[in-house]
TrEMBL record:
Record lineage: Eukaryota, Metazoa, Porifera, Hexactinellida, Hexasterophora
Top-rank taxon: Eukaryota
InterPro entries: Transposase-MT_Hybrid
Species this protein is from: Oopsacas minuta
The protein's name in its UniProt record: Transposase
Length: 111
């Protein structure tokens, strides 16, 4: 089975031999799908509309705010802020010296 995967997906795209063995054993034990099993507890929601709005307002007020200032200003983790900036606000960061400033990809230069 592993050799078939390597032939189809090459060595870089194929699952390792140990991974194939683990999955084969899971299916032998009755697993029906490769989808993740449901996990207990509430889902993790890093990006809520309220969080997105508060970050957007800060950036609108100060377009030169650094990535290091945002989490402290809004009280969210760096990971949550980064996720909201990239996924919801469609922003990317630019490095200027040691400051990391976010700018909208599709926004035309104002000048």
């Amino acid at each position: 089975m592993h050799l078939d995967l390597v032939q189809v997906y090459n060595t870089k795209g194929a699952l390792s031999y140990a991974g194939v063995r683990r999955w084969a054993q899971r299916f032998r034990l009755g697993r029906k799908s490769i989808e993740d099993d449901p996990r207990p507890g509430a889902p993790i929601t890093a990006a809520s509309p309220i969080k997105s709005c508060s970050i957007k307002k800060l950036i609108d007020l100060d377009p030169h705010i650094t990535i290091w200032e945002l989490p402290n200003s809004v009280g969210f983790s760096m990971g949550s802020v980064d996720h909201i900036l990239r996924s919801q606000l469609k922003l990317r960061r630019f490095a200027l010296d040691e400051s990391h400033i976010y700018s909208q990809r599709s926004r035309k230069r104002q000048g």
